[in-house]
């Protein structure tokens, strides 16, 4: 009896632990990426992450085995474009605003997708919480001198739009290809954003032996390792549980930013972040459909 209970608890705890490790990995990768920005710039770091991450994903998913149709080309292209834009804009945001704030603002993208899929009265509460959180963060009125860079915040919101489009186009593109879709999308994103990164930095520095090991660590922490863990967790957790746990990612980003980047938030910023997290948790737990907020970074 005890062993059966112990086994049941492990079956619940194991995927939760994997998902928490995935979030920790992604945010640690983002903090490590931020340390490279002063050396080669955010566009170049984005390019290296996409390039090395694509190579890793190709090794894992072997997308050359897939059969593509004329109807699947446009959804795959838009999926890859939104994936690359999301990463590019997020790293631009990280150049000037704290990690936790950037993650919270970016998270409004998938949150909007989840809320717009429902029309119930309770959803207005989550919308109010998001608006309140954004009102405390955005440089409006009394908040204009709170130390947050307006352009960086716009980049983060733009990354949120990219994340929302990633979900929309990813659902269409992934119908026939499953988890392997991310490797194809990553390749498309690399074709677009690697040249952009190379144009805004020196290729000699980007591909130097002092940079590549760090870039490889970023690609592993931000792409290969967390995506693998999330796929395992997704097969063992209900959609609502998965979405609720993912809602904690802005807080995870804030704590990682404090520990590794010494980015301490003000009380108002913490309140705003909590509002957005509560809205995400509420939206997920009251969702009628089985649609889940999908994680990409």
From TrEMBL:
Classification via PANTHER family: INNER MEMBRANE TRANSPORTER, S-ADENOSYLMETHIONINE_S-ADENOSYLHOMOCYSTEINE TRANSPORTER
The keyword Metal-binding appears for this protein: no
Gene: rhtA
Cellular compartments annotated: Cell membrane
Transmembrane segments: 12-30, 36-61, 73-91, 97-117, 124-140, 152-169, 176-199, 205-229, 241-261, 267-287
Protein name as catalogued: Threonine/homoserine exporter RhtA
A Pfam family recorded for this sequence: EamA
UniProt organism field: Proteus cibi
Swiss-Prot/TrEMBL keywords: Cell membrane, Membrane, Transmembrane, Transmembrane helix
Ranges where the EamA domain occurs: 151-282
Main location: membrane
Superkingdom in the source lineage: Bacteria
Gene3D superfamilies xref list: 1.10.3730.20
Membrane topology: Multi-pass membrane protein
Family: Belongs to the drug/metabolite transporter (DMT) superfamily. 10 TMS drug/metabolite exporter (DME) (TC 2.A.7.3) family.
């Amino acid at each position: 009896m005890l062993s059966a209970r112990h086994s049941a608890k492990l079956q619940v705890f194991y995927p939760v632990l994997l998902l928490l490790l995935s979030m920790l990995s992604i945010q640690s990768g983002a903090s490590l990426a931020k340390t490279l920005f002063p050396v080669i710039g955010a566009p170049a770091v984005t390019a290296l992450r996409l390039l090395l991450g694509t190579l890793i994903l190709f090794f894992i998913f072997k997308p050359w085995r897939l059969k593509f149709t004329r109807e699947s080309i446009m959804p795959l292209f838009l999926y890859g474009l939104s994936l690359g834009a999301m990463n590019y804009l997020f790293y631009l945001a990280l150049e000037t605003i704290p990690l936790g704030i950037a993650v919270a603002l970016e998270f409004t993208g998938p949150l909007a997708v989840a809320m717009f899929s429902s029309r119930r009265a309770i959803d207005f509460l989550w919308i109010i919480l998001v608006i309140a959180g954004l009102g405390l963060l955005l440089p409006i009125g009394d908040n204009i001198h709170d130390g947050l860079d307006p352009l960086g915040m716009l980049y983060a919101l733009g990354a949120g739009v990219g994340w929302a489009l990633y979900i929309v186009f990813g659902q269409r593109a992934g119908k026939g290809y499953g988890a392997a879709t991310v490797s194809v999308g990553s390749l498309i994103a690399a074709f677009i954003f690697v040249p952009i990164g190379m144009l805004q930095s020196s290729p000699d520095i980007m591909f130097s032996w002092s940079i590549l090991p760090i870039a490889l660590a970023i690609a592993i922490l931000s792409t290969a390792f967390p995506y693998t863990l999330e796929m395992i967790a997704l097969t063992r957790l209900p959609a609502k549980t998965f979405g609720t746990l993912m809602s904690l990612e802005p807080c995870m980003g804030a704590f990682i930013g404090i520990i590794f980047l010494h980015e301490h938030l003000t009380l108002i910023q913490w309140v705003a972040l909590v509002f957005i997290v509560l809205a995400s948790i509420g939206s997920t737990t009251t969702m009628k459909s089985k649609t889940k907020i999908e994680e990409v970074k």
